[in-house]
């Protein structure tokens, strides 16, 4: 009997893994409990208190493996009240409700159900599943797996099961998040001439950041780089001259942009009086649309949908930012059953029929991988 993607998604949604704190370890153990009896060799990698990632391998290791990847953590529930139980896995019509249904316990469940079925049909498959913790705050779980030497095998392609509504994204942009800190000298609010106001300095620098020109380059898959000042903090109380203010920069980069070079360039534009700190550094993933595996996947999707599949890349970041580099830059396709527009929302949901459709797509991709 085939494992059921809906039932498994509901089981994963019921296991709370809001990051922070994450608490992914019980889910890693739970998935090991499915994959190990099926024939996978599983390694649960502990990454902190009640936190773990799971690397599951299948095959003799003679040929490059297909890597399938997904993360177990979810974002918090947010301020607004939910109208359904976020951990209840309630189904209404074609919608399954709960935190992580779209991003991305649905994708994770379909991935596990599909590989367990595929290795029965094609025992010659070579697979590695990288099931991560701590993705939502900058791919930290994947980075630790790489640093600790767990991403060491030969991988021929990466399928990222993040939410795309079952349409393919060929790689994605990078995310560079920086904090800019401005310092001044505090004084009593009645004698501002005795101090240096850090909020004024930060306000000037924010306007410099707003007008930074990231260049005219437009990538055929990823479009243009973007920059946004997302938050500002400054001052302690109304009657003091503030001696510290800071703001954050969210820069979405193209594959051609080195994050160190971008940071150096921002530093130069803002001047030496601004201290720049890294928050998130996840570089872009570049994919050649003419790669044979990509062409094969696009071909099978085109045949299924009976219409041309748009060639596009993602504007978001996934763990592939780390995995692509660790595995020596194989082709990367992001395709999963969740809806990207549902990710991180109140009353998050996913389409039940898309779970089953994704399972059919994954099984076709796995069948073709087995024939290599
Ligand atoms: Zn995600």
From TrEMBL:
Signal peptide: none
Cofactor(s) recorded in Swiss-Prot or TrEMBL: Zn(2+)
CDD domains for this protein: M20_ArgE_DapE-like
GO molecular function ontology, one term from the record: hydrolase activity
InterPro entries: ArgE/DapE_CS, Bact_exopeptidase_dim_dom, Peptidase_M20, Peptidase_M20_dimer, Peptidase_M20A
Keyword annotations from UniProtKB, A to Z: Hydrolase, Metal-binding, Zinc
All residue ranges annotated as the Peptidase M20 dimerisation domain in the record: 171-272
Transmembrane feature ranges: none
Top-level taxon of origin: Bacteria
Cell division keyword on record: no
Family: Belongs to the peptidase M20A family.
Stated name of the protein: Peptidase M20 dimerisation domain-containing protein
Annotated organism of origin: Candidatus Lambdaproteobacteria bacterium RIFOXYD2_FULL_56_26
Taxonomic path: Bacteria, Pseudomonadati, Pseudomonadota, Candidatus Lambdaproteobacteria
């Amino acid at each position: 009997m085939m494992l059921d993607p809906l039932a498994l998604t509901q089981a994963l949604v019921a296991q709370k893994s809001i990051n922070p704190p994450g608490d992914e370890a019980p889910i890693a153990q739970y998935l090991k409990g499915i994959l190990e009896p099926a024939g996978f060799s599983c390694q649960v990698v502990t990454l902190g208190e009640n936190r773990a990632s799971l690397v599951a391998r299948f095959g003799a290791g003679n040929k490059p493996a297909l890597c399938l990847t997904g993360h177990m953590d979810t974002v918090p529930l947010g301020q607004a009240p939910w109208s359904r139980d976020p951990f209840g896995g309630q189904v209404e019509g074609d919608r399954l409700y709960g935190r992580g249904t779209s991003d991305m316990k649905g994708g994770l469940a379909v991935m596990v159900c599909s590989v367990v079925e595929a290795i029965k049909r094609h025992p010659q498959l070579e697979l590695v599943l990288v099931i991560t913790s701590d993705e939502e705050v900058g791919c930290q779980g994947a980075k630790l797996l790489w640093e600790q030497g767990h991403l060491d095998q030969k991988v021929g392609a990466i399928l990222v099961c993040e939410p795309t509504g079952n349409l393919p994204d060929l790689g994605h942009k990078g995310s560079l998040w920086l904090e800019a800190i401005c310092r001044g000298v505090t004084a009593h609010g009645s004698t501002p001439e005795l101090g240096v106001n850090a909020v004024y300095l930060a306000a000037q620098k924010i306007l410099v950041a707003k007008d930074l020109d990231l260049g005219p380059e437009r990538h055929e898959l990823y479009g243009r780089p973007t920059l946004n000042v997302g938050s500002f903090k400054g001052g302690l109380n109304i009657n003091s001259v503030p001696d510290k203010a800071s703001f954050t920069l969210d820069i979405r980069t193209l594959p051609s942009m080195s994050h160190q070079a971008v940071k150096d360039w921002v530093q130069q534009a803002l001047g030496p009086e601004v201290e720049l700190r890294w928050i998130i550094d996840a570089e872009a993933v570049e994919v050649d649309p003419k790669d044979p595996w990509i062409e094969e996947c696009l071909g099978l999707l085109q045949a299924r949908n009976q219409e041309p599949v748009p060639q596009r890349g993602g504007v978001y970041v996934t763990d592939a930012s780390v995995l692509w580099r660790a595995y020596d830059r194989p082709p990367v396709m992001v395709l999963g059953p969740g809806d990207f527009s549902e990710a991180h929302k109140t009353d998050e949901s996913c389409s039940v029929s898309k779970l089953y459709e994704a399972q059919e797509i994954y099984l076709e991709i796995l069948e073709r991988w087995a024939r290599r």
